[in-house]
Amino acid sequence: MRVAAITDSDRPTEIEIGEREDPSPSNGQAVVRVEAASLNHRDLWKLRDDDRLPEEQLPFVPGGDLAGTVVETGPDVSRVAVGDRIVLCPLESCGTCRFCREGPENMCENYSSYDGAFAERALVDASRLISLPDDVSVVEAAALPIAYTTAYRMLERGETTAGDRVFVPGATGGVGIAAVQLANAIGAETIGTSRSADKLERVEAEGLDHAIRAEEPDELRAAVEEIGEVDVTINHLGGPFTRVGVDVLRTNGAMVVCGRTAGRYPEFDARDLYFGHKRILGSTLGTQPDLERLVGFVADGRLESVIAQRYPLDETAAAFEAMRDSEMVGKLVIEPQE
Ligand SMILES: NC(=O)c1ccc[n+]([C@@H]2O[C@H](COP(=O)([O-])OP(=O)(O)OC[C@H]3O[C@@H](n4cnc5c(N)ncnc54)[C@H](OP(=O)(O)O)[C@@H]3O)[C@@H](O)[C@H]2O)c1
Ligand SMILES: [Zn+2]
């Protein structure tokens, strides 16, 4: 089978198409023909800073989000059968820690997430497969697992309810646009930002209530303050956007953090935090039932995955570049069978 593998994590990034033996399933595993796999910023982190892949792990096939058809199952698999159309829940949990036992499973103390989606075939834990209704396409499904499930859990962790005002700095990428769409679906009012006016127009078409084009955090803060106090900030940017995210919160408001694309070490005024009774909460991924719910939302028309661009496997490197250059609105999808 063909795979897209990172062969060198120094710049310029090398992602090469290589050949691997077709996988065969052991107990509890399935082999999936990958028809769609979506890119996430976490795939880029494998080329950067402290998340950079060590030499000994190269070549490495990245990719956590995949959908396709089951082509083989190992012993002891009853959840899915050959021919089923599925999407993978990329959460890998230990099954024995307190959070695996009591929930939510995305808080697993030994958490990890799947890699290997950018390939013609993928070997997966069959218990993590979710069957797709006929009216959900593999491309729509492959967009959901990491970005949409993370955004869904973040909104839930921030106790977002109808009528809340939700602030999403960086509203054009995977987690950002998902947060806007899902907050809209709850009945919240949404504020989203981007460095690009053109990209914001596309997010407005998805129902964004207030679009702010700004680069500087201070400019951004002023624009949000003009709209009003915020109940929940969904923050995947970190860095200087952390302080803005806290500043604009109303008393007892919540900022939920899942990333740090714009900087590792946030700063904010502690006094603002304690006098404002504000909450800062970390969040990572979501649960398998969360993803099942999202697939259901797509099936019944309440949610549409936003797809920016589709690429054949041969052009995986171009998809990585597009994400690095922040060119897209929504999700970049690789189609390994094309
Ligand atoms: N903890 C978890 O479970 C989890 C799950 C998913 C994602 N994450 C993290 O969340 C972040 C977003 O992931 P993603 O896949 O949604 O990424 P993405 O699609 O690449 O996000 C693009 C968005 O980030 C903005 N952006 C990127 N760099 C920026 C910068 N330097 N300054 C200001 N804005 C910037 C872009 O804004 P413009 O419109 O201005 O270009 C765009 O809105 C990543 O750090 C990722 O690792 C964590
Ligand atoms: Zn666990």
TrEMBL record:
Record bears the keyword NADP: yes
Compositionally biased residues, Basic and acidic residues: 8-23
Keywords from the named record: NADP
Record-annotated Enoyl reductase (ER) domain positions: 10-334
Record Pfam families: ADH_N (PF08240), ADH_zinc_N (PF00107)
GO molecular function, one term: anion binding
GO biological process, alphabetically ordered: small molecule metabolic process
Region (Disordered): 1-29
InterPro entries per record: ADH-like_C, ADH-like_N, ER, GroES-like_sf, NAD(P)-bd_dom_sf, Zinc-ADH_QOR/CCCR
Key word NADP present: yes
Superkingdom to which the source organism belongs: Archaea
SUPFAM superfamilies to which the protein is assigned, alphabetical: GroES-like (SSF50129), NAD(P)-binding Rossmann-fold domains (SSF51735)
Signal peptide coordinates: none
Protein name (record): Alcohol dehydrogenase
